[in-house]
């Protein structure tokens, strides 16, 4: 059986007033099935009792011969456990854009999962009201050229605002931004918490060196894996998982993902389910 680890981040914020919130974040499943019908994943999520499940893209595998049934089956079980908010990755985007290669399969899939109760956020924002707390979740769908290999000038804050509007400073803002490549722009946009995947943890991770290579063949990618913090006007910095995150910082978390494709390689880089505990400042 393919195994995975659970990584928990505790985030203390003054935008959560009284009631702690818990989210599970999933990325880059790519049609992989862990155990029998992903039962170990669902058992773990059920034991966590999250307030919502956040998907940071690439649940599907965007290849012409790949089925959408594994992703649909996963979502049909996930919605029984908690509300599911799903931001697109490049594989979802590819299947939806290139209908010459993929036909209308993804549009049919999108319609089906919405009927299940999945909230698919394609440059859209959802306001969650949970136990008297307010959280905004935005799914970013960047123009597809931003996923091209080689040097690509990333989007600026103005372009992001054109795609998804501006953040609300009064509520806790979570941005589902599949590729971490443009982390600087996400911080500039103003998200309190940025959730990314795409790099599969750097495929190979080594002590002191961190993530070695991304799936788009970039060496030592910035924001390759883990937790990054930005305080006021300072530059974002890599942070240790064991430290509690305070409300005066913006946070970016890049997950290792639960699956892989094409290069099915993981060295010192286990599959990962992420848990986010958002705590009031006084807790």
From TrEMBL:
Location of the Calcineurin-like phosphoesterase domain: 21-201
GO molecular function, one term: metal ion binding
Name of the protein this chain belongs to: Phosphoesterase
Protein source organism: Blautia pseudococcoides
Keywords assigned by UniProt, alphabetized: Hydrolase, Metal-binding
Cited SUPFAM superfamilies: Metallo-dependent phosphatases (SSF56300)
PANTHER family the UniProt entry points to: PHOSPHODIESTERASE YAEI, TRANSMEMBRANE PROTEIN WITH METALLOPHOSPHOESTERASE DOMAIN-RELATED
One Gene Ontology term from the biological process aspect of the record: lipid A biosynthetic process
Recorded superkingdom: Bacteria
A single Gene Ontology CC term: membrane
InterPro entries: Calcineurin-like_PHP, Metallo-depent_PP-like, Metallophosphoesterase_sf
Organism lineage string: Bacteria, Bacillati, Bacillota, Clostridia, Lachnospirales
Cited Pfam families: Metallophos
């Amino acid at each position: 059986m393919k195994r995975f680890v659970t990584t928990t981040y505790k985030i203390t914020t003054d935008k959560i007033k009284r009631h702690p919130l818990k989210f599970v974040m999933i990325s880059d499943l790519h049609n992989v099935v862990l155990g029998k019908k992903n039962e170990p994943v669902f058992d773990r999520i059920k034991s966590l009792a999250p307030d919502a499940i956040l998907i940071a893209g690439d649940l599907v595998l965007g290849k012409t011969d790949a089925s959408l049934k594994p992703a649909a089956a996963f979502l049909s079980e996930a919605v029984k456990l908690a509300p599911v908010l799903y931001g697109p990755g490049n594989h979802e985007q590819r299947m939806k854009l290139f209908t010459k290669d993929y036909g209308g399969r993804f549009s049919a899939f999108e319609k089906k999962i919405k009927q299940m109760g999945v909230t698919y956020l394609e440059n859209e924002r959802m306001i969650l009201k949970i136990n008297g707390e307010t959280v905004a979740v935005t799914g970013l769908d960047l123009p597809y050229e931003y996923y091209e290999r080689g040097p690509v000038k990333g989007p600026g804050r103005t372009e992001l605002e054109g795609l998804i509007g501006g953040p609300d400073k009064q509520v806790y803002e979570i941005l589902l931004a599949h590729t971490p490549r443009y982390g600087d722009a996400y911080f500039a946009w103003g998200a309190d918490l940025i959730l990314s995947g795409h790099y599969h943890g750097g495929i190979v991770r080594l002590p002191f060196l961190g993530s070695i290579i991304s799936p788009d063949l970039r060496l030592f990618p910035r924001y390759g894996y883990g937790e990054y913090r930005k305080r006021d006007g300072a530059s974002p910095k890599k942070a240790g998982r064991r430290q509690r995150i305070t409300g005066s910082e913006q946070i970016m978390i890049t997950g290792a993902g639960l699956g892989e494709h094409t290069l099915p390689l993981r060295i010192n880089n286990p599959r990962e389910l992420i848990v986010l505990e958002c705590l009031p400042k006084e807790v």
